[in-house]
Amino acid sequence: MSQTKRTPLQRIIGGVSAMLLALLLIAVFYVSVIMAQPPESEAVSPLPDQPLLSASPAVMVSSDAELDTLLRSFPVAVLSSAGSGLTLLSGSSCDVAFEGGFARVAELLYQAPDGTTLIATTIYPARALSLLGREDYTLSDQSGTPVAGMATVRMENASAIRLHVQGEEALYAVIAPRVDAATLSALVRSLQLLTAD
Predict the structure, then answer these.
(1) Residue 102 β-bridge partners
(2) How far apart are the first and last CA of the chain?
(3) Please, how many CA atoms are within 13 Å of residue 190, restricted to the half-sphere of its CB?
(4) Which of 21, 123, 138, 197 reaches 20 to 30 Å from 158, CA-CA?
């Protein structure tokens, strides 16, 4: 079987053809990748640039009658009960070191008529997600129960359910014992975002 030798001109033309074919394939690949990308959705508005706080004394309360004192110490609305069904047992507002300044954390401990307790937490600024803590919580496969009209993320550990949401002004969380969905919904129904009178 005889082989025909290619002339230098044929080798150059073959090399150029192979290079053009490779460039064409690369161009087709990039065009298909660009065309396959979904259109950009509307930009998600970033959280407002909330200033950090100067340190201030902690506030402790032990009844609904004193709640207004705690609300006045907080720079934004606090997640708290509107007085239907839950009794405030105790509450606190204190500063925590954060990003070279201070964040503020309010925790309110409530009790339902059946003795079930619930903790409502408000953290300012809203970006202070690291202050929420993990405490061996894992993401639940169940959807979060809305709290104060906000959609929540549901997390669980061996003994509790935590619902949290990053609002526009603060980070809000509710910790309740492991109960069924209807009971949990009833527990958080009276929670609202309240400010001082």
Answers:
(1) 53, 97
(2) 101
(3) 17
(4) 123
DSSP structure class, residue 42? P
The tens digit of pLDDT for each residue in 142-155 reads 888 999 999 999 99
* Cα 41 to chain centroid, rounded: 20
Neighbours of 136 (CB within 10 A): 11
C-alpha to C-alpha distance for 58 and 182, rounded to whole angstroms:
35
**Sign of the dihedral defined by the CA atoms of residues 81, 92, 102, 134, in that order:** negative
E strand or H helix that includes residue 73: helix 67-73
Nearest to 120 by CA among 90, 97, 95, 141: 90
Cα gap 193→186, rounded to integer Å: 17
Residues 137/146, Cβ–Cβ less than 8 Å:
no
